[in-house]
Model the fold of this input.
Amino acid sequence: MLLWQACRCPSRHGTLAAIVTDTDTSFSARVIAWQRRHGRHGLPWQHTRDPYRIWLSEIMLQQTQVTAVVPYYQRFLARFPDVAALAAANEDAVLEGWAGLGYYARARNLHAAAKAVAAAGGFPRTREAMCELPGVGRSTAAAICAFAYGERQAILDGNVRRVFARHFGIEGYPGERRVEQTLWTMADALLPETCIEAYTQGLMDLGARVCVRSAPRCPACPLRETCVALRQNRTAQLPAPRPARALPQRETHMLVLRACGELLLEKRPAPGIWGGLWCFPEVDGQRAREEARARFGLDVEALHTLGVIDHGFTHFRLRIHPLMADVARVQAAEEPGRLWLTPPDALGAAVPVPVRRILLMLARQPAAAGT
Done:
């Protein structure tokens, strides 16, 4: 019986007929056997059916590598051990636990989803229902349901797209509509009847550790004998990269106000970039002194320039010019959305990566000459 035949997808020759026979050497069987012997088995979210722990790991793993996620996952779980604890927490505490992982909309969606799950009395048990939670897409929902409930559903994250594109010689870049349709059709067709957990983990492990973007470890791959890209010596070309586009450059000045050893932070509005996080105020670089007085009632005694910080987002690049300002007096009471914190306390707050870099810069760089 043919498991996958006549997959009509973009090719430099027009169409590609990919054939995988449903035998003991089939695509899924090879992935499962490889995962059991060579895959990852010691990750902290494995060996559990707890949907909370699995869901938390899958959200953290979106656009973030496993090595970066593990310590955050462990600290987050220690602070919020179950969905009820996460739902009951305030947003500042959740963002503080997330600070440094980036893509902060994930943390806000995580908090909103926890509240929805707690109100419903438990996690959804199907992929379709799981997709209703904020921040959970089709592939993430499928992974959660496969690991938590053994539901037979297909995943298609970035690593799995690369495995499929190379193995079946699929042209075009992932994200293009016709390529996505082909990949999803293929992902559904290749699902094994049993062992969905090992198969799902195996695809993830292959993409993360063997079929990597640069210099794939093809001799270690269980699919090497039927891989189109390997046979055609095209692993460097497949999958095709997304067409490059020039990212616009933006610039801003951040005013680092210091008084009596404390720094002033403002809470960013949500939604928006760094929504809900604590940042240094953004100001007009030419009117920093005037804005300090008008907005905060503070008189700047000395103003110092710090090093430039570049930070990349998906759709633009941001260049930050931090300005260090020593001020003469501080308002008697903090206003809502503003905090005076010592540098160590600021580092422990929910701050984005560029603000953390400024704080670390202050810790090792003496003030420059006043301007």
Remarks:
- The beta strands are 2-4, 20-21, 249-259, 262-267, 278-279, 282-283, 300-305, 309-312, 317-327, 338-341.
- Residues 1-24, 367-371 have pLDDT under 50 and may be disordered.
- The chain has two domains: 2-231, 249-364.
